[in-house]
Specification:
alpha/beta; Rossmann fold; globular
Length: about 260
């Protein structure tokens, strides 16, 4: 079994690569940081290849997928669009460049991988595409408006694509993590509820992917809270979340 993972140089992507390799998957690992990819490949117990590439470059992603397929001996059975970037985005201090970056990496990065792998999956009538969205996409959260919007866009695209591709035997999985211990969250200065270790998150994701789940959402308490939050009237939601619009978050970009 062959899988390709974007954003594989650190965080959830690297942990998922390690978990899948332990389960016998051969891997194509795609990210910008070639040195980290090379180091990860050396650690993995199965045949793997580093594919240094920026997910926002559609041509480069297609070339990386082709190289991975040629090196690993065939098309990918699983593709995981994990590359993501998060930047605090308070509406009163909106920065267009940061918003564009999140859209390019989170949304267009997923589209670029989808474009590169789905035609082969449809032709073969097999395969699975997964996107790492976020529980933050279930409802708009203060100080994360753009990030939440990109994750909501991912969720909508993956849900619709799952229905479209069902007739072709291609599965689609939406992955919605809560707060995970990664470089993206370590800059948060507020208390993160139900914070989860990245290795534990990788096991949950790998289990869900191998079982062919439509949605992998965790940790459960956070999932239930946000699902319930979608049912709360807007006025109550605003009253409950408005204090968090003043929370302290480091301004540096965090990208997995």
């Amino acid at each position: 079994m062959r899988a390709i993972i974007t954003g594989a140089s650190s965080g959830i992507g690297a942990a998922l690569a390690q978990e899948l390799a332990r389960r016998g998957w051969t891997l194509g690992l795609l990210a910008r940081r070639e040195d980290l990819l090379d180091a990860l490949v050396r650690e993995l117990p199965t045949k793997s290849i580093a594919l240094p590439c920026d997910v926002t470059d559609a041509v480069a992603v297609r070339d990386a997928v082709k190289k991975g397929e040629e090196t690993l001996g065939g098309p990918f059975d699983l593709a995981v669009a994990n590359a993501g970037v998060g930047v605090p985005s308070h509406a009163a201090k909106f920065i267009l460049a940061d918003a564009e970056l999140m859209v390019r990496v989170n949304v267009l990065g997923m589209f670029n991988l989808f474009d590169a792998v789905i035609p082969s999956m449809v032709e073969r009538r097999s395969g699975r595409f997964a996107g790492v969205a976020s529980i933050a996409g279930l409802r708009g959260l203060p100080a994360t408006s753009v990030y939440s919007a990109t994750k909501a866009a991912m969720q909508a695209f993956l849900e619709a694509s799952r229905i479209d591709l069902l007739q072709y035997g291609v599965g689609v999985t939406t992955i919605n993590p809560g707060f995970i211990e990664t470089a993206m969250t370590e800059k948060n200065k507020f208390k993160m509820p139900f914070l989860m270790k990245v290795d534990d998150a990788a096991r949950v994701i790998a289990d869900g992917l191998e079982r062919g789940k439509r949605v992998v959402e965790f940790p459960r308490p956070m999932s239930l809270f946000m699902r319930f939050g979608r049912l709360i009237p807007d006025a109550l939601w605003e009253r409950a979340t408005s204090p968090y619009a003043r929370r302290k978050i480091e301004p540096e970009k965090a990208r997995r």
